[in-house]
Amino acid sequence: MKGFLVDTIGMTGAVLTTVCWLPQAIKVVRSRDTAALSLTGTVAFTIGIALWLIYGVALMDWPLIASDAVTLALMAVIVAMKLKHG
Questions:
Q1: Alpha carbons 32 and 84: distance in angstroms, whole number
Q2: pTM score
Q3: For residue 54, what is the domain's CATH number?
């Protein structure tokens, strides 16, 4: 039971920290307004997620891989829009 609780907590955290970027990505794509976003911070976060993804792959940790892959895709959109629209 202890393992199930830990897994549930981990998956809930992964879902929340992944899904939280969805509204930001949608807003940036719709408005094309990225003025309030820091390029340095956004790129640093995106690189961090890429490293977490590599770590997840090395461990073959599928919840980590899935959440980081989705977050990386969302962040790639945000970074691309920031680079394109400043």
A1: 9
A2: 0.86
A3: 1.20.1280.290
| Residue 37 φ/ψ region, left for φ over 0, alpha for ψ in the -120 to 50 degree band, beta for the rest | beta
**What is the pLDDT of the chain when averaged over all its residues?**
93
Task: Please count the structural domains in the chain.
Answer: 1
Query: 20 is in which domain, residue-wise?
Result: 2-85
Q: Which long-range contacts (CB under 8 A, 24 or more apart) does 56-65 make?
A: 63/7, 63/10, 63/11, 63/14, 64/14
